[in-house]
Amino acid sequence: MSWVDALADSQPIVRVYGDGIPSLVGISIHEVRFDRNASTIYLRFDLSSFPERPPVKWTAAGSNTVQLELRFSGVRSVKLEGWSSEMFADLRIERKGPSTVVAWVEPAPHMEIVAESVFVARIQAYIDSTRQRE
Predict the structure, then answer these.
(1) Of 17, 52, 95, 105, which one is least surrounded by beta carbons within 10 A?
(2) Per-residue pLDDT tens for 99-125?
(3) CB-side exposure of 80: number of CA atoms within 13 Å?
(4) What are all long-range contacts of 28-34, with beta carbons under 8 Å and residues at least 24 apart?
(5) Which Pfam families does the UniProt record give (predicted)?
């Protein structure tokens, strides 16, 4: 079972990556944002791989990095330990029943999120000058 199976809607990922679903190993975390009014956590990070057939506008712009923002809704609990200005981690997301999703980020930061659902809030590409295009 792939991590996209835990998403409430996998189409944004499938449209960009097709059958080549990206791994969540070695992601670069940019932001963790908490919204108490909506019981929501946003997790924004760079994927470690670029799609084989990216959208035309990404190719035309010379993009080499895909940034994904996931929205965890109906957050029941969160644990967060460790923080740094550069965070490379592995992310696992699993569905644990019809209304429970659990996500783990490790090693740094170490985070565990238990929520009702997870959605793709945004998927975009940009030029990361520290990366070469694959």
Answers:
(1) 52
(2) 999 999 998 789 999 999 999 999 999
(3) 10
(4) 28/86, 28/87, 28/88, 29/87, 29/88, 29/89, 29/105, 29/109, 30/67, 31/69, 32/80, 32/109, 32/111, 34/78
(5) Imm50 (PF15594)
